[in-house]
Amino acid sequence: MLKLNHKNLDVWKLAIKFVSKIYKITSKYPVEELFGLTSQTRRASISVPANIAEGASRKSLTERKRFFEISRSSLVELNTHIEIAKELKYLKEEILLELEKDLNELFAKLSNFIEKSR
What we know:
Distance between the termini: 26 Å
CATH topology: de novo design (two linked rop proteins)
CATH class: Mainly Alpha
CATH architecture: Up-down Bundle
Order of helices and strands: HHHH
Strand content: under 5%
Number of domains: 1
Radius of gyration: 15 Å
Shape: elongated
Number of helices: 4
Helix content: over 70%
CATH superfamily: 23S rRNA-intervening sequence
């Protein structure tokens, strides 16, 4: 593995842990959702740390912030996928509360990170 600076970022580490949680949760979705909601939810979750990493490697502030904002947008997309799963009753209430807490924490940290980026 490469020793890159983004791996030291708390927001990136938190996003990586969140991806793992999303994979575990979506593994319990119905099999017919494998190429639908399961895939889309996982892809959106992966986009969060991936865009943080890509942004961290960019030289210009404008480019860095653009990737960080894409990462934040993926969180919003992910929130929508979770709302859909809630409507379809794929998630138990305690899982929903946990995901909501995690999403809010990650969104706040990422927003703060974007604000302080230089």
